[in-house]
Amino acid sequence: MRIAFTGGSGKAGRHILPMLVENGHQVLNLDLQPLEAPGVDNLIVDLTDAGQVFSALSGYSNFGELEPGTGVPTFDAVVHFAALARILIQPDTETFRVNTLSTYNVMEAAVKLGIPKVVFASSETTYGVCFADGMRRPAYIPVDEEHPTVPEDAYAMSKVCNEVTGRSFQARSGIDIYGLRINNVIEPSEYEAAFPAYLEDASLRRRNIFGYIDVRDLGQMVERCLQVDGLGYEVFNVSNDDLSVGLSNDEVRARFYEGVPVKREMAGNDTMYCNRKAKRMLGFAPRYSWRDVLKG
């Protein structure tokens, strides 16, 4: 597939783009900073500028595309990961502006250019727990896609707004638009660097609903979204199967979630950030765990 990937130079993208290339896709990274990776083409684009977005998504990816003499090829999909990644990077107003306007511009251009699929990064923060002022517990566990999305911070608000934007563009056009409510992204190097602290103090993972997603499994999720057509508009939780702490599911519930309704029984180390919908509809099958690295 010929894929435009926004934000490919970020934490997730710098792992996922090489995976997509390895899987045989042609990938153009649209970002403010290039990604130096074999097989990845780069275009410097300000995604808050609608004209730049439209030009990028209707243009060539590399010099090789000039050779056939058949004009500019069309992208098969856009994967939109670019964003200000959390609160407290820039002022809240700028976080909301950048994240919502860039998403609108990408989706509008995709629809008007006839690109048949958009996969975009939403967030675990939409559930209102991650950046809450003080302690905020889920309405129930495990948290699935039916859980209320009523956050109070600018970043999560922008992600909820983006989901509405995606739903509306899908209704308007009929293309496939899939939103990924991504749990806390973990790079392989972070297992040894960060997880010992999580095993020592499980409360450090409360704001992430004690879950995580290995960036390599996130790459698999993107690939599954690219391969499965015809779902219209859908949102999916994206997480690994196990908790990110050394406590069992029962121990986490007893310590942190006493009185929180349990929607579906869980056991052992089962995640509280439910990924069953992605497994059922996309064939998502996470493979990685911190437990394989920190075996002691």
UniProtKB/TrEMBL annotation:
Transmembrane segments: none
Domain NAD-dependent epimerase/dehydratase: 6-237
Stored Pfam families: Epimerase
Annotated Gene3D superfamilies: NAD(P)-binding Rossmann-like Domain
Domain of life of the source: Bacteria
Protein's UniProt name: NAD(P)-dependent oxidoreductase
Organism field: Tropicibacter oceani
